[in-house]
Write a structure and sequence with these properties.
The protein is an alpha+beta fold. Helix content is about 40%, strand content about 15%. It has four domains: about 5-110 and about 255-335, HUPs (Rossmann fold), CATH 3.40.50; about 120-200 and about 220-240, Methionyl-trna Synthetase, domain 2; about 350-370 and about 380-525, Isoleucyl-tRNA Synthetase, Domain 1, CATH 1.10.730; about 580-685, OB fold (Dihydrolipoamide Acetyltransferase, E2P). Strands 16, 17, 18, 19, 22 and 25 form a six-stranded antiparallel beta sheet that branches. Strands 3-2-1-13 form a four-stranded parallel beta sheet, with helices on both faces. Strand 23 (about 660-665) and strand 24 (about 670) form a beta hairpin. Helix 2 packs across helix 3 and helix 12 (about 380-410) crosses helix 17. The N and C termini lie far apart (about 85 Å).
């Protein structure tokens, strides 16, 4: 058994206010955090759910310059959009604030100053990349150059996206400013560093020995960093946007965004408690050992929340450390990585425009596919299947049957439960244990399995009412039907509680249909939630089917985005070295009319062509274009081919020539043809 705490402070990663939020954010951080907080509230525990926008750093300044507006206008726009998206999806923050607030600026500045005054930083003068034309030092991500590994021309200063290599700006060949294209020079600058190497030992003990219960992906990434040896990390930057470093001689420098952002959890808590004194002092939620601190983050933030931020808190000396950091891995989209810069995502604000009123459907699917310990994939086909086959056909079907039969047979009043038979008892015994099973899963942050357990309760109900078939025995066994409907309504009320952390909107609708004014987690598993004679209003469908047209529209939107990105990124291959005209004259390129075309057995790539090449004899050519064409599409086409290529044996066939194709911007092959009906055998030249 772990330690029992009086209260819990739950934080979720601060989204960066440089764009809207997408389903990857929701699946990785915010839905899991919301499920946990809603569960704690149902349990009657003291909990605060802290969120906010991260509004400093370089990308917002670049966007502002591109759009010709102020940085504040950029962060205001996206802070409001992000905040609204979270509200729309029921992410139940107690506060959602921002790192540009006056409260945050003061608290972050005071935090830095205390560590500075206590001698917890080291000062270093280093040479960093500088753009002389703009007068700015650059961050790693805003430096580009040739990759030293694969020689891609536009690798970032921290990573090459082509080969995946982790880089430093110093490794790039011919580095330049990614925004302006200007060449860079090295220039000396002074900064303050957090000496993480001095925290190595206690962090090893605290994480590797004391927190073996952390998720394997979190524990493993921390161990990898610790095994590699920690090094000092800069806490200041040369920028004009951010919180000024509160030290004399630090003009033009601000707190590094990774240092200032996590302090936002604390400042947002202070802002909340200052406005609501009934919650107690903010310090109780951050400094009392009886408070449990839990961070919900994505895997790209594990190191900051498990190593760097705890080192900051420890250096300050007054704060508690996180008890758990349930980080998720990444969610992919239709087999591809989600990319905000390339607009390849399902944005929350756009989803609600296309799928109005379907917040719970998305919450359900994202939780069912939650990337809890490894990357997972979201597809629209799976979304539709889960909505229609689980939410509609199981959960919704059971609820609709139970409520409609109550209206039909008893004018909406809960009937009395009569004598139970063995099947009734077995059914009730099966769902009485759901509370304990759900609690165990939720307490251990296994939200995917917990939601599955809640859906199992709906499956029990659906099977029960389908097996009992009350509509068949209403005339011959009316007392028996009353018992069946009563048990079904008890199950339905339990579902409204069990799904509350996962599907808050539909749970609220269901409680309305049950006229269920009050409920708590302790009621889960009860068989007497619906009292005899209790009047129910007219029911409505809890869920509706997702139609094919809606899914096809979403898939097409993503395909259009991929095509647009491929077109925007396409660059023609460099022209090969010049050759003498005589060398070109050696090639005999002709027109051939495709008489037959067929696939080669045991080959996924090859098509076998029979051509009319004008000689009076058929010519056979094999071409590796089966991925792009079906054989029937090419019959009758006039294609260009190299006629004087030496014959080759390929998979037991003799290929006499080469059919010419063009490589499109997206990698597809397009067979070259003639505009007019040219005779077979005509020369090209």
């Amino acid at each position: 058994m772990g330690k029992t705490f009086k209260r819990t402070t739950v934080t979720s990663a601060l989204p960066y206010a440089n764009g809207p939020v997408h389903i990857g954010h929701l699946a990785g951080v915010y839905v899991p955090a919301d499920i946990y907080v809603r569960y704690l509230r149902l349990k009657g525990r003291d909990v605060l759910f802290i969120g906010g926008s991260d509004e400093h750093g370089v990308p917002v300044t670049i966007r502002a310059r591109k759009e010709g507006i102020t940085v504040q206008e950029v962060v205001d726009r996206y802070h409001n959009l992000i905040k609204q998206s979270f509200q729309d999806f029921g992410i139940s923050f107690d506060i959602y604030s921002r790192t540009t607030s006056a409260t945050h600026h003061k608290l972050a500045s005071d935090f830095f100053r205390k560590l500075y005054d206590d001698g917890k930083f080291i000062e270093q003068v280093t040479e960093q990349f500088y753009d002389e034309q703009t007068g700015r030092f650059l961050t790693d991500r805003n430096i580009r150059g040739e990759c030293p590994r694969c020689h891609a021309p536009e690798a970032y200063g921290d990573q090459c996206e082509k080969c995946g290599a982790t880089l430093s700006p110093e490794e790039l060949i011919n580095p330049y400013n990614a925004e302006t294209g200007n060449p860079l020079v090295k220039k000396a600058t002074k900064h303050w560093y957090l000496p993480l190497d001095k925290d190595q030992q206690w962090l090893e003990n605290w994480i590797l020995k004391d927190h073996k219960e952390w998720r394997s992906n979190v524990y493993g990434q921390c161990k990898s960093w610790l095994d590699g040896g920690l090094r000092p990390r800069a806490v200041t930057r040369d920028l004009d946007w951010g919180i000024p470093v509160p030290v004399q001689g630090a003009e033009g420098k601000v707190l590094y965004v990774w240092f200032d952002a996590p302090i936002g959890y604390i400042s947002n808590t202070k802002e909340l408690c200052d406005a609501h004194p009934e919650l107690g002092s903010w310090e109780t939620w951050w400094k009392d050992p009886e408070t449990r601190l839990v961070h919900f983050i994505g895997k790209d933030n594990i190191v900051f929340h498990c190593i760097v931020f705890p080192a900051m808190l420890k250096a300050h000396g007054e704060y508690i450390l996180p008890d758990n950091v349930p980080s998720n891995e990444f969610l992919n989209l239709e087999g591809n990585k989600i990319s905000t810069s390339k607009n390849y995502a399902v944005w929350l604000n756009e989803y609600l425009q296309d799928m109005p009123g379907r917040q719970d459907e998305l919450r359900y699917v994202l939780t069912a596919n939650a990337p809890e310990t490894k990357d997972n994939d979201f597809t629209w086909a799976d979304y539709q299947a889960r909505c229609n086959n689980e939410l509609v056909a199981v959960y919704g079907n059971f609820v609709n049957r139970a409520l409609q039969l109550t209206q039909k047979y008893y004018e909406g009043r809960v009937p009395a439960c009569g004598e139970l038979n063995d099947y009734d008892r077995a059914t009730l015994d099966e769902f009485r244990g759901v509370k304990e099973r759900l609690e165990d899963l939720l307490e251990n942050f296994r939200f995917r399995d917990a939601q599955k357990e809640a859906m199992n309760l709906a499956r029990i109900g659906n099977k029960y009412i389908a097996d009992c078939e009350p509509w068949k025995i209403i005339k011959t066994a009316p007392q028996r039907v009353k018992t069946i409907i009563n048990i079904s309504l008890q199950l339905t009320a339990n579902l409204a509680i069990a799904f509350e952390p996962f599907l808050p909107f539909s749970s609220q609708r269901l409680r309305t249909m049950l006229a269920m004014d009050s409920f708590s987690w302790e009621d889960l598993g009860s068989t007497s939630l619906m009292h005899e004679g209790h009047q129910l209003p007219q029911p409505q469908l809890l869920f509706t089917k997702v139609e094919d047209e809606a899914i096809q529209a979403q898939v097409q939107k993503l395909q259009d985005t991929l095509q647009a990105n491929a077109l925007a990124e396409y660059k023609a291959e460099p022209v090969k070295p010049n050759i003498p005209f005589e060398d070109f004259e050696k090639l005999d390129i002709r027109v051939g009319i495709v008489k037959t075309c067929e696939k080669i057995k045991k080959s996924k790539k090859l098509l076998k062509f029979t051509l009319d090449d004008g000689s009076g004899q058929d010519r056979t050519i094999l071409s590796g274009i089966a991925q792009w064409y079906e054989p029937h599409q090419l019959i009758g086409k006039r294609v260009l081919f190299v006629a004087n290529l030496a014959p080759r044996q390929i998979m037991g066939e003799t290929s006499c020539g080469m059919i010419l194709s063009a490589v499109n911007y997206n990698g597809d092959l397009s067979v070259t043809t003639t505009l007019d009906d040219v005779r077979g055998g005509s020369q090209v030249g």
